[in-house]
């Protein structure tokens, strides 16, 4: 009995100590310490990121920057890492930096270390960049920890600027990766249909701000995902042989591609002009797999008129 009384006193003393809680698991994820936040922008980053602490039980929504620790994931935050980041092998990157620009590599590396310390970067492709009469040094920063954490760097001789906000936070790097993967799918198909020197298939992606929360960094490629707006683009090059049936071959390629089951919001035809540049035509989806598609393509390219079903595409507008 005496032993039981002694142990009871010890237990009461332990419970009275500050910070002691027998329920060691937090009731919500937001009661854990908030990881450090690195705020990205298209201008200079300024000071290094600082660690913020929170004890609130309400959902934490990060309004700028990224979560520095990919192990922490907040569903409400479209700017966070994916639950499982996909690493990049930096040793396989091709670096097109010329020897004269090698002296600028330490400038970019120092900037990255000071402003994005949570990443391991490789700086590549240091080139000259002209804008508004000024010459910048431009480079690419590739993260080892995340295949979609890749963005541009610019140095004007005084400050370094980056495109982290656009490419990472707004998910343009994810969108571009998906586009390249889709192009690879189309190339496998189009090279079997028609020589690339005559026409080629491409796919365009477009990001809408409302869809950013639906997109996670390093998200696996999904051809029929509705996260991005997609269009199928057929490029027809100039200097075609006189015997090459443009309308017939273009219609066959479009019909066969659409039969693969991929979903596109729009279909465009780009026709290269003798003086250079392309004219963009919009093809109504209802013409796909019809007997009139080939004739309508030929008519649009050789005899444009307001009554044609295929017209020059108007500029895209956003609602």
Can you tell me about this structure?
The structure is a single chain. With 319 residues, the chain is α+β, with helices and mostly antiparallel strands. 24% of the residues lie in helices and 20% in strands. It is built from 6 helices and 11 strands. The strands form 3 sheets. The protein has a 5-stranded mixed sheet with strand order 7-8-9-10-11. A 4-stranded antiparallel sheet has the order 3-4-5-6. The radius of gyration is 27 Å and the shape is elongated.
Order of helices and strands: HEEHEEEEHHEEHEEHE
Average predicted local confidence, pLDDT: 77
Strand content: 15-25%
Radius of gyration, in Å, reads: 27 Å
Which structural class fits the helix and strand makeup? alpha+beta
Count of separate DSSP helical elements: 6
Low-pLDDT sequence parts: 2-80
How do you describe this structure in short?
The protein has helices at residues 2-15, 105-115, 164-169, 172-193, 246-258, 293-302; strands spanning 37-38, 66-67, 121-131, 134-143, 150-155, 160-162, 199-206, 229-236, 266-272, 278-282, 311-312. The chain is α+β, with helices and mostly antiparallel strands. Mean pLDDT is 77; it is low at 2-80.
